Amino acid sequence: MQKAVLTRLGDVAIRRCEREDIPAVIGINAKTLPEHYSDYFYYEILEDFPETFLVAELNEEVVGYIMCRIEYGFSNMKRFGLAKKGHVVSVAVLEEHRGKGIGTKVIQLAQEEMKRKTAKECYLEVRVSNQEAIDLYQKLGYKVTSRLEGYYRDGEPAYLMATLMDS
Ligand code: ACO
Ligand code: ZN
Questions:
Q1: Is 68 in the pocket of ligand 1 (CB under 6 A)?
Q2: Ligand 2 (ion): which residues have CB within 5 A?
Q3: Contact 51, 14 (CB under 8 A)
Q4: How remote is the CA of residue 30 from the centroid of ligand 2, in Å?
Q5: Whole-angstrom Cα distance, residue 160 to residue 87?
Q6: Rounded (to 5) percent helix, strand, coil in the chain
Q7: What phi and psi, each to the nearest 5 degrees, are found at residue 124?
Q8: Are 94 and 60 in contact (CB under 8 A)?
Q9: Whole-angstrom Cα distance, residue 47 to residue 44?
Q10: What is the Å distance from ligand 1's center to 80 Cα?
Q11: Are strands 82-93 and 143-148 parallel, antiparallel or unpaired?
């Protein structure tokens, strides 16, 4: 069966992740990021938040993904108060396919879905040394709202970056 494509970027199709894509997603994560999760974690996020778990596919190969959660908690953008927040848990593109706009597009599409779910802001954590990703988030309107010391297992701090999503 043909899978429903959300958008195309040249020959790259962006669509929702399906259970059978998870092994490929885990493979991309293993190649591109030092943070790994249990297999169960991916299936659980897909089960709970299928609208914001997207994959980019080229020639029937998954080359990138984004997975997110919708959470309710203290606002990262406002001084006080609670907010419904989108959380970009992980986004990655295989190295040979970077710089083609895939990362930008999957984040934008995930944000559209978060807005549809009435999230008012979106946040993520990123290694302070990951300049490429930080630049991309800044380009998309994210701002550093705090620095989380010792956030990663190897001791590296994270920036918490967040953006308001106006409708
Ligand atoms: N390789 C890498 N970056 C390039 C390249 C290239 N060949 N060419 C241009 N860029 C730059 C550009 O400045 C571009 O910005 P522009 O749109 O102003 O030109 C910027 O990278 C991002 O461009 P995209 O093509 O939209 O993003 P991409 O598909 O390359 O994905 C990503 C960005 C996901 C950060 C990717 O670099 C990656 O997978 N990195 C490793 C994993 C990672 O660090 N993920 C984020 C961790 S934090 C978290 O998950 C919350
Ligand atoms: Zn996170």
A1: no
A2: 125
A3: no
A4: 17
A5: 11
A6: 30, 35, 30
A7: -160, 165
A8: no
A9: 5
A10: 33
A11: unpaired
d(CA 67, CA 30): 15
Write out the E strands in the chain.
5-9, 12-16, 54-58, 61-74, 82-93, 121-127, 143-148, 158-164
If you take atom 43 of ligand 1, which residue's CA is the nearest one? Answer: 92
Q: Residue with the nearest Cα to atom 34 of ligand 1?
A: 92
* Structure tokens given for 133: 């990703």
Contact 3, 15 (CB under 8 A): yes
- pTM for the full model? 0.95
- The string of pLDDT tens digits covering residues 107-134 is 999 999 999 999 999 999 999 999 999 9
What are the 10-residue block averages of pLDDT along the chain, 167 residues in total? Answer: 86 97 98 94 98 97 98 89 95 97 98 96 98 98 97 96 88
Three-class SS state of 19: helix
CA pair distance 4, 35, nearest whole angstrom = 30
